[in-house]
Amino acid sequence: xxxxxVTLAASPHxxxxxxxxxxxxxAGHSVRVxxxxxxxxxITGAGLPATPVGPRLAQDESVEKLRRRQxxxxxxxxxxxxxxxxxxxxEHRPERLTPDFLDGLFTxxxxxxxxxxxxxxxxxxxxxxxxxxxxxxxxxxxLMMGGAVAARACGAAHARxxxxxxxxxxxxxxxxxxxxxxxxxxxxxxxxxxxxxxxARHGGAFDEELVTGQWTIDPxxxxxxxxxxxxxxxxxxxxxNGPSVVPSWLREPPARRxxxxxxxxSFREVMGGDQASVPALLEALGELDAEVVATLDAGQxxxxxxxxxxxxxxxxxxxxxxxxxxxxxxxxxxxxxAQNALVHGVPQVIIPNDLWDIHPRAELIVRSGAGLRxxxxxxxxxxxxxxxxxxxxxxxxxxxxxxRLRAEIRATPSPGELVPVLEELTARHRQVS
Length: 433
Description:
- This protein is α/β, with parallel strands linked by helices.
- The chain has two domains: 2-236 and 413-429, Glycogen Phosphorylase B (Rossmann fold); 248-410, Glycogen Phosphorylase B (Rossmann fold).
- It has 19 helices and 13 strands.
- The chain has a seven-stranded parallel sheet, sandwiched between helices. Strands 10-9-8-11-12-13 form a six-stranded parallel sheet, with helices on both faces.
- Strand 11, helix 15 (335-343) and strand 12 form a beta-alpha-beta unit.
- Helix 17 packs across helix 18 (396-410).
- The longest helix has 19 residues, at 99-117.
- The radius of gyration is 22 Å and the shape is globular.
């Protein structure tokens, strides 16, 4: 069969899709990956055929664009909350999940995120590609709903492949339940309106499958997922960190316990400059009786006066190669980093902020016993971080809990084992013309 993957033009989103795409190709299926032109080199670097769709996403310019979209969308609300509230998809407190909150959330998310990532030109290109290539199955990123529109336009089966916790699915269930409880004239649904209009342009109609897929493929361990009633398939997370070379120093076992410090692709954007500075992090870890491997680029090192003697600074090292030698990891809470740590059974210290699903993921990992996070918001003192890392290194319960989650992941079907299931579901759901 032919399988079209649709992903947001962000390398971490692609990295989650690569192992399943490889598995399908190894089973003899034809695979293509569609994304904005920004990602073409990363796709082909993974050994997969790329098809650019739509305009460049231009992530470097997107922060200001997102802010303007938030402000414009907020103008539609009677009493708009502050900017943080407008994007709080991880909200779970019952007292906050009011009809007004849910309406405002989906008003802003539809305008600022969903429409932004699959604008008209991108959807049109996806539909044209799908009608020309005729995929049997479309596997789409949860933020790229245009993939579902394209699947419907050509009669393909389609499924979401999640990057992170299923906040969209969980919050959508709350919103549709809230809408159903109201009089019909008060059921304003911006997401449905946009997808109905978008699908109608290509001869289709709207239903909730355009939001959450005919089924969902989820690499997150089942014990760390938010509950939903959606049909889903578990798949084992296979780490892919992009093309890389294993450095010579990593080929030998460490002389003492090793701690990984990684701040993601952009420390200030992802982690938040008010959480902890790079010098403060290095100060805290420099007093540990451990070797610290810190992935820092030149810009991050510019604000560091002195690197402690126990810290090895590298611009990049593949986590899949580094983490098996580590006893702990300190990171910003991103999905790919957390999943890599879970796969290798490494206890985690997470310094989260409010971006997307980082807070709920941190809470789930803490509740599982496999990690810790700072006690409260605000700047993180070196002494607090040092204490957190010392605890996950010295208290055996953290390693035991991390090993339990690693065992759960290893018991989950691999991408190769999932292929026959996808073949069966595709035959059941695709429309044969």
